[in-house]
Design brief:
Layout (H helix, E strand, L loop, with lengths): L1 E2 L7 E8 L2 E6 L3 E6 L13 E7 L2 E7 H6 L10 E10 L2 E18 L17 E7 L2 E6 L7 H9 L5
Parallel strand pairs: 1-8, 3-10, 6-8
Antiparallel strand pairs: 2-3, 2-8, 4-7, 5-6, 7-8, 9-10
Length: 163
């Protein structure tokens, strides 16, 4: 993963793309960045649930953010990564969630104070955060905590405890 060579103030983010749009995931939420791996399918799960990853003794549910947002699977390219993130599976229970992210190969620093509300919060998914301009483009922050509603959280993380 490449880091911007220009030092600047701000929090470190992993940058990725969904279609033509740029997004940022706070690096403090990232556990590990892996190349794409084969996953075990989860029968009857929504199509944006890519499957389960067996990694370091854990069963980790993986979401395909491209399928969830754009309605198509993440492209099978070398720049598509499997990003493991910290996730609150229950009120006081920490877990790891996997995300298939396209072009997740660079980090950048973004000042928190430059993020602004999009003005379109009503009706927007919970995982979409504020936006900021970066050059001629906009980059939007993704909120990991908003990726799953309570029903999906229970479905995906309940399966880990079953024998």
């Amino acid at each position: 993963m490449q880091t911007s060579s220009k030092p600047s103030a701000g929090e470190l983010y992993l940058q990725f793309q969904l279609g033509e749009d740029r997004y940022a995931l706070a690096a403090r939420e990232v556990v590990e960045v892996l190349p794409r791996r084969r996953l075990k399918q989860i029968p009857e799960a929504p199509d944006w649930v890519a499957g389960l990853l067996a990694h370091r003794g854990q069963m980790i549910p993986v979401l395909d953010l491209s399928r969830r947002v754009l309605g198509r699977p993440a492209l099978a390219r070398s720049s598509t990564r499997l990003v493991l993130v910290h996730f609150a599976a229950a009120a006081e229970e920490a877990a790891v969630l996997g995300l298939l992210l396209e072009q997740a190969t660079h980090t950048l620093r973004l000042p928190d104070e430059a993020f602004q509300s999009s003005g379109l919060e009503a009706g927007q998914p919970d995982y979409l955060g504020p936006v900021q301009g970066k050059g001629a483009e906009l980059i939007q922050r993704i909120k990991v905590s908003g990726l799953l509603d309570d029903t999906m959280r229970a479905l995906l993380f309940q399966t880990q405890g079953r024998g």
